């Protein structure tokens, strides 16, 4: 979208305008969000970049971690899934509940999780330790894994001592990609709407205005005093009254023109609701299980039925995916109890 603004320039760059001479025109262009289907770059053709020692992830893992904290629905849905997995997990001498919780959370957020096998001198497994997926990198040689922070290899694991549980991807077979990745735009749009609303209220419940002064009686000192008063009316000075005295001034010599007053008030609730539905659809979690209040008289239906259906169609497949660790360990270290809730069984 391209808009032209006439006679408006930043305060620090405003040129002097003489009477009877038209002011300069300034035009600027707004950039549009990049569509997914048109965002092919060099890395899309290379896949996971080989830096000579390990492969780089296809997406920024630290960015994924920050994105989950930008939206309450996304973060709450992921933690809800982790909690449900931990509530049905049966601890094992090799894998305690805390270690499994880290594995499940990494798998849900990053689409991959890692376990390190600690072996006894005789070669038997003594303990399974979690390794944070955000800092793990897969080596070029089979079975090699590295822990990397700040693009520096901090630790190289013994070949074959690390298991990678990953969500399959259609573009590469090195790293996993989370299922909620397509809803990232909705999560960030939800955050942007909230941040805009905060700025809107901090700015005195308006989106800004233009103070249009054409009174010939105003002099330089008067204009500077008026400008300083407006500066002090921001932030903690919101809602203060401003007195302006202009002897022999005209009625329309000082005008207050709101900017985007209507746009600041509309669609906030609609954006929050639509982006919330996108996120819940990506996570496949019923809204009543996250404590969302229904907006209609009928509500969301029975929460017991929703929990039972969700456990059968979403929790059970997740448990099956995490149980793949057993094939690597060679024994049943990841097992689950049946999901039950107040008389409703899975």
From TrEMBL:
Region (Disordered): 1-20
Protein name (Swiss-Prot/TrEMBL): Phage portal protein
Record organism: Stenotrophomonas indicatrix
